Amino acid sequence: MVVCVVSSSKDTARSLSTIFSFVGEKVEQLSLETLEHKLELTPQLPLVVVLDDVAAQPGLLKHFPGTPFILTERAEQKLREYSNCIGVLSEAPTYGAVIQLLHFAQEYHAQKPDQQKTVHAAQLNQLTQTLVGQSAAMRSVREQVVQVAPSNANVLILGESGTGKEVVARGIHDCSKRATGPFVPVNCGAIPAELLESELFGHEKGAFTGAVGMRKGRFELAQGGTLFLDEIGDMPLPMQVKLLRVLQEREFERVGGNKTLKADVRIVAATHQGLENLISEGKFREDLFYRLNVFPIEMPALRQRDGDIPLLVNELVRRMHDYEGESIRFTEGAMASLARQRWSGNVRELSNLVERLTITHAGRVVDVADLPGKYRDESVEPYTPVYPDEMHERDALNAMFAEDEAELDNVLYEENGGFIPASLPKEGVDLRALLGDLEVELIRQALEQQEWVVARAAEQLGMRRTTLVEKMRKYQLTRSDA
C-alpha cells in the first residue's frame, strides 16, 4: 500500500512523509491536481491519501469512494462526514495512532464489498475444481483454505490416508501470495532417518561419505513458495528438534556447512496420525506440535461426505478421459451401490476403482453387476437379456464355421454325406453333415484351382493360411487325393 501525502505546505508534506516512512510505508508527495489525475486513471490502486490541503473540496472524497482518506486537523471539517474518511491525524501523532490509521486503511481496501466478494468467489470456484464436493464438510474445508491462504501461518492438515491432504496443501499454495513460487512436497515417512536432514536442509561437498558435491535441500528449493511436510508424525525425534529451530529462527545451515541461510518458506504439514497421542507416548514434541498447529484443517473421510460420490466419480472419469482418452458412464444403480460403501481407502480407493473400470469397461456403461464384488450391491439382480430362438440357431451355425479349432472339434461330420439338394426333402436332412461336406468340397476346389498353393487358396476362401492348413489336416486333404 502506498501513502499519498497531499499538502499545500512543503514543510508539512515533508514532515508527514517522514512520519509514514518511519513506520515502513512507501510514501509519495503529490499535488491535489496530480492526485485527482492518478485516481481517475487507476481508482482501484491500493493507496491511502493523507490530506492536508485546505483547498480540497468535499467532492474529492465523494468522487473516489473506493479510496480511504486520512485527514489532518487543517483539512476542512465537512470532509470528515464522508465514510471513506477513516480518521484524523493530530499535529503530533503517536506511533500507535499512525499504525492504527494504517490498519484502518488496509481493512478499508481488504473489505471492499465488491472486491472481497469477487476475490473470495474466484478462489472458491478455483478450489471446487480440485477439492470436489458439495457436502457441508467439503464446503467448510474450502472456506478454511480461502481464509488461511493469504497469510503465512503454518497449517496442519489432519485426516485419514487417501482423503486428499496434499490437494488441500496445493490449494492453500495456489490461493496464497506465494502461488508463483515453488510448491515442494516431502514425505517424511518415505525418507530414511539418516537421510532426512540432508533431504530437508541440503549438504556441502564432503559432508559425509558419498557427498561428492553440494546439494540444495527442500527448504532452499521452496524459497519464496510452500514446503509441504507430509506424514509429519513419522519424523524422527532428533529431526523434530532441528525442524523446530528452523520454524522459530527462520534460518538453517546445510549439513557440513557453517553458512546460515534464510528460510523464506510457508510450512504446511499433514498427518493421518493423532499427534496428541504421539505426544503422550513421547514420540512427538509438544512444542513442535504447537508450532505447526497454528491453523488446523481436518479433512473428512469419504464416508462422511454425503452426496459427494457422484461428483467425485464424474470428476475422476473426466480426468481419466483427459489422461487416457477413454471414458465410462455409470448407471444410477451402480452409483447408488458405490455411495453405500465404507471406503476405507477414501478418495484414493475410489480413484483406483474408476481407473480399473476405465480399463475393463472402456467406452461402456457400468452397471451394478459390472462392479467388482467388494463394491457390488448383491440385492440388485443383474440384467439378463432374452434373445429370439432364431438368434440362437444362427449362433449355432456360426459356431460350425468358427476358426477356433476347439469349436470345430465339437462338430462331427459324416463322410460321403452327399451333395446339397435343390430343395429340402420331406424326410429332412442332416444339416451338419451337409454343411461339412460343402466345406470340404469348396476347400478342395479352391486348392485345385490354385494348383494346391495353400496361401492362394486361403486367400480365395477368405481365411488365414494357418486356418486352411488346420482344416486340411482335419479333413485329411492332400494333393495325392486329387
Write structural notes for this entry.
By secondary structure, this protein is of the alpha/beta class. The chain has four domains: 111 residues, 3-Layer(aba) Sandwich (Rossmann fold); 162 residues, Rossmann fold (3-Layer(aba) Sandwich); 73 residues, Helicase, Ruva Protein, domain 3; 91 residues, Arc Repressor Mutant, subunit A (Orthogonal Bundle). Helix content is 45%, strand content 13%. A hairpin with a 6-residue loop joins strand 11 and strand 12. Helix 13 packs across helix 15. The radius of gyration is 39 Å and the shape is elongated.
Quick description:
With 482 residues, the chain is an alpha/beta fold. The protein has helices at 10-22, 32-41, 58-63, 95-110, 113-128, 136-148, 165-174, 193-201, 218-221, 237-249, 275-280, 286-292, 309-324, 332-339, 346-360, 389-400, 405-408, 431-449, 454-461, 465-474, and strands at 2-6, 26-30, 47-51, 69-72, 85-89, 155-158, 183-187, 202-203, 215-216, 226-230, 251-253, 260-262, 266-271, 295-298, 329-330, 365-366.
